[in-house]
Amino acid sequence: MSLKLPDNDSAKVFIVSQDAEGVFGALTANGYVVSLSSADPETVQISELDDPPQPAPSPAANAAPGATVESDASATVSSPASPAQPNVAITIRATFTNPNPNAPPIAAITDTVTVVPGLPASEGMLFGAPVATPPPTPNSES
């Protein structure tokens, strides 16, 4: 999914993972570190990650209104009053690293934010689907 954001506004972004057993927040539980970057920080800024991550709206189609799940990362994306590239989809990249050399790599994911001057409210969302996580790996010191 992508996000349309009014100029001079902000929205929360969540990275949510789900393991094979259906457990949410499995990335950070398995030692992965999430980072977010904007391809154009003059149009879409990303705050420091929340510590600890805030709960995310549940991605389940049948979730009760207001239901949340554990997130691996949360932050705020925002647009200035005069964005450098209005009406252009700006790529937001989430990368996943793990200090354990035996941990399987997880490919980066991307989504887009388009700053639309005069838009009355945000539309859509970033990273709308949970990130699939590999099974836990043995510690490198084992």
Task: For this entry, give a set of tags.
142 residues; 1 helix; Immunoglobulin-like; mainly beta; 5-stranded mixed β-sheet; globular; single chain; 37% strand; 3-stranded antiparallel β-sheet
Write the layout of secondary structure elements.
Blueprint: E1 2-6, E2 10-15, E3 17-18, H1 26-29, E4 33-38, E5 45-46, E6 56-57, E7 68-69, E8 73-78, E9 89-97, E10 109-116, E11 123-124, E12 131-132
Summing up helix and strand content along with how strands pair, one would put the structural category as: mainly beta
What percent of the residues sit in helical stretches (DSSP H or I)?
A: under 10%
Strand order within the widest beta sheet: 4-9-10-1-11
Termini Cα gap: 40 Å
Query: Strand portion, in percent?
Result: 35-45%
- What radius of gyration results from the CA coordinates? 16 Å
How many strand segments?
Answer: 12
Can you tell me the residue ranges where pLDDT is under 50 for at least 5 consecutive residues? none
Return the domain count.
1
* CATH topology annotation: Immunoglobulin-like
Question: How is this structure best described in words?
Answer:
This protein has one helix at residues 26-29; strands at residues 2-6, 10-15, 17-18, 33-38, 45-46, 56-57, 68-69, 73-78, 89-97, 109-116, 123-124, 131-132. With 142 residues, the chain is mainly β. The protein has a single domain (2-132), classed as Immunoglobulin-like. It is globular, with a radius of gyration of 16 Å. 28% of the residues are buried. The mean pLDDT is 86.
